[in-house]
Amino acid sequence: MSAPANTTQEIPAHTGFRHLRREFVESLNLSIDEFEHTNTGAKHFHLAADNSENVFLVGLRTVPTDSNGVAHILEHTALCGSQRYPVRDPFFMMIRRSLNTFMNAFTSSDWTAYPFASQNRKDFFNLLDVYLDAVFFSNLDELDFAQEGHRIEFETPDDPDSELTFKGVVFNEMKGAMSSPVSTLWQALTKYTFPTNTYHFNS
């Protein structure tokens, strides 16, 4: 969040976290504080800089053991409604209604991240509330898995004699991604370069 970065600023106390260390990056005029959640051991890094953007990111370790795409599908379904926001696609509703300067979610080879940014402080905390509830208290409805992951439908919905076809948001995303020669080459390289670890798989 935007704040003057320095090494002498007092660190606010929070009963749920233990402050571990502070580092100052002089070249960026950036102060980094590392905290640890006392009950779960989860890490929190706070970056203070003289910048108008308020940025937050939830990062989770999602290490695949095969190429079935579970982490990518969960990334999508987590944003399809939560305990406090049981509406259809609250993520896309917030994109249209908030003052965000960035909103997205990513799945990489061994992690999943949910970042957002806003220059408006109230909007930032509204987004923070929605994101944290989505990540930690997702509804994970079965129909959302069918929508976001993959499902089988008749090619012509009202014609049961038409061909069966695979559909789904992540399924179509991956079809597009793997149609790129560069992506195909990268996946082939990592598959054979890392035969025994997580980077062997396409997450």
TrEMBL record:
Molecular function via GO: metal ion binding; metalloendopeptidase activity
Gene3D superfamilies xref list: Metalloenzyme, LuxS/M16 peptidase-like (3.30.830.10)
The protein, known as: Predicted insulinase-like Zn-dependent peptidase DVU0941
Pfam family, one: Peptidase_M16
InterPro entries xref list: Metalloenz_LuxS/M16 (IPR011249), Pept_M16_N (IPR011765), Pept_M16_Zn_BS (IPR001431)
PROSITE patterns documented for this protein: INSULINASE
Domain Peptidase M16 N-terminal: 58-155
GO biological process assignments: proteolysis
